[in-house]
Structure formats: C-alpha cells, structure tokens
Specification:
Pfam families: Ank_2. Keywords: ANK repeat, Repeat. 46% of the residues lie in helices and 0% in strands. The chain is mostly helical. It has one domain: Ankyrin repeat-containing domain (Serine Threonine Protein Phosphatase 5, Tetratricopeptide repeat, Alpha Horseshoe), CATH 1.25.40.
Length: 98
C-alpha cells in the first residue's frame, strides 16, 4: 500500500520509466516513501534483479541518487540500502553504495 509508479519502476529496474516519472516529480524530500517508510531508492536497491539479471537496476539507483533521492533513509524496521544489499547478497549494490 502507498506504492507509486515510481516505486514499481525503480523496483523492477525500468530506467526509462524512472527517468520519465522524475521529469515531473522529485524524491529529494523523502515524500516518495510508502507506509512502511520504504523509498523508491530502497525499492530499487532491495531487489535481486540488480545483482545481474537486469543491467538497468544499478543504473536506476544511480539515476535516483542523481535526482536527489536520499540514499541514507531507512524504513520503519531500521533497514537501509546497505543493510538490505548485504542481507540479500547484492555485492554490486553494496560496493557501489560504499
């Protein structure tokens, strides 16, 4: 609940859609959070597809960061991007994040 087209596009690594959606909106204030506090950036980073099956996944993270998305926000469970990347074995995301 509370997920937007931006969340789903980021989650699934659809960089063209992420770019399109961010031409008319911004996630710099954290207003892109879901009810559990997860941001579009979090959704993009927490999916296994970024680890190699979808090359645009890491590009989507880079694009979101460049558009002002806060990489350091955590959800209501205290989970942030680096936490989830490590938990899910997403080495490329963890290395990029650090």
């Amino acid at each position: 609940a509370g997920r937007t087209a931006l969340h789903w596009a980021a989650r699934n690594g659809h960089l063209d859609i992420v770019r399109y959606l961010l031409t008319s909106t911004s996630c710099s204030s954290g207003s892109d959070t879901t009810q559990d506090g997860t941001t579009a950036f979090g959704w993009a980073s927490w999916q296994r597809h970024i680890n190699g099956t979808n090359g645009d996944g890491l590009l989507a993270l880079q694009w979101l960061r460049n558009m002002g998305c806060n990489m350091r926000l955590v959800n209501h469970n205290g989970h942030g991007v680096l936490h989830k990347a490590a938990q899910r074995g997403q080495r490329s995301v963890a290395e990029w994040f650090v």
